[in-house]
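residues and backbone:
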Amino acid sequence: MGETSTTVDVALKDFRELMAGDGYALSWTESAPDKVVVTIEAGPEACADCLVPLPVMESIMADALAATPYELDHVVLPGGGH
């Protein structure tokens, strides 16, 4: 996961920081050699109104990964949203 980790971390860095400001943690896992799953978890101070709907989040994450050799598999939102 070495090269994948660096590439995906760089692509999602700004979004990870933005989400943290609203009380969310953004992480990802590799689901296939060229695909990743982005998971967003709510912290105790999470701003529920700050989270966009799943289709919008998937579009944002797919666009962020477009500059990498990896594609978005799917996004998992708090409360089981997928």
User: Anything to note?
Assistant: The CA atoms of residues 11 and 65 lie 6 Å apart. The chain has a mean pLDDT of 90. The chain has one domain: 2-80.
